[in-house]
Amino acid sequence: MTVIAALRPLAKAPAAALARVRFVLTDMDDTLTHEGRLSARTYDAIERLRDGGIPVLPVTAAPAGWADQMARMWPVDGVIAENGGLFLRRTADGDVERRFWHAKEERTVAAGRLERLRQTIHADLPQVELASDQPFRLCSLAFRVPSDPGLRMALVRHFQAAGAEVTVNSLWVLGWFGGYDKLGMARRVMRDVHDLDIDATPDAVAYAGDSVNDAPMFAHFPTSVGVSTVIDFLSDIPRPPAWITRGPGGDGFVELVDALLAAQDDQQP
Questions:
Q1: What is the average pLDDT across 212-231?
Q2: 64 plus 112 within the same structural domain
Q3: Which end of the chain is more exposed for a tag (fewer CB within 10 A), N or C?
Q4: Domain boundary at 161, 176, 191, which?
């Protein structure tokens, strides 16, 4: 049986498992969005979860600048940005607090290494394009994903040769220094902010994603959900998500929200 054939439809997920979910962590690009847009129904689904007592935390490779706006204005509990480099959360007075993976001194050293790496990559691979959102990043270096597989792999190898962490998603080839990832920062945030040990109680969290950089999250959480387009990346995901939606992007996320809230209602006396 192929990996795709073995994926189980979300509609068959047991209600008892869904009812144990207390938090939803989710990728953003091509999971909450589809073709670069966030639909009203997806935004409404996030709000319905919040109103139902299930906080939502986007966990994204997107830059700190995007995450700042999301943390301030979206109905979310906070945002893990730059693949784990920092966490942003709205404060009571409407400002945003930032918690970085690294201390300030370590971030300064990493920033210098990333800039030198950017110069090397542009010298060796002049055809690659720096991501248009790079000016809004604080912890990472991002390039647009090259359409040429050979060029994409050459870019990945440059990050690896420099000792950087690197991942590829639907938008970016993203690199950083520091040994963290989405799961590492999620573990820290859930412990420090919500007093939840995700190693002891992984079934308290549902995770939704679509791409390679979601692999650690898919492997960790038993209620892991891939939106339908995850099939494009399965060859590079060691352990596929437990469940798959019918729809892509935000439509798939709405399916997850509907299933979680229905399971919650079923548990009401």
A1: 96
A2: no
A3: C
A4: 176
pLDDT band at 2, cuts 50/70/90?
A: low
For residue range 40-76, what is the model confidence (pLDDT) as tens digits? 999 999 999 999 999 999 999 999 999 999 999 999 9
Q: Are residues 97 and 186 in the same domain?
A: yes
Centroid of chain to Cα 185: 11
Rounded mean pLDDT, 121-150: 96
Closest CA to 125 of 117, 135, 115: 117
| pTM exceeds 0.85, yes or no | yes
What is the separation, in whole angstroms, between the first and last Cα of the chain? 41
Asked whether the predicted pLDDT for residue 200 surpasses 70, the reply is yes
Q: Do 21 and 68 belong to one domain?
A: yes
d(CA 247, CA 254) in angstroms, rounded, equals 9
Is residue 147's pLDDT more than 90? yes
Greater confidence (3 vs 268) lies with 268
Q: What's the 3-state SS for the chain?
A: CCHHHHCEEHHHCCHHHHHCCCEEEECCCCCCCECCECCHHHHHHHHHHHHCCCCEEEECCCCHHHHHHHHHHCCCCCEEEHHHCEEEEECCCCCEEEEECCCHHHHHHHHHHHHHHHHHHHHHCCCCCECCCHHHCCCCEEEECCCCHHHHHHHHHHHHHCCCEEEECCCEEEEECCCCCHHHHHHHHHHHHHCCCCCCCHHHEEEEECCHHHHHHHHHCCEEEECHHHHHHHHHCCCCCCEECCCCHHHHHHHHHHHHHHHHHHCCC
Residue entry with tokens 């920033």: 111
CATH code of the domain in which 198 resides: 3.40.50.1000
Residue 2 falls inside a structural domain? no
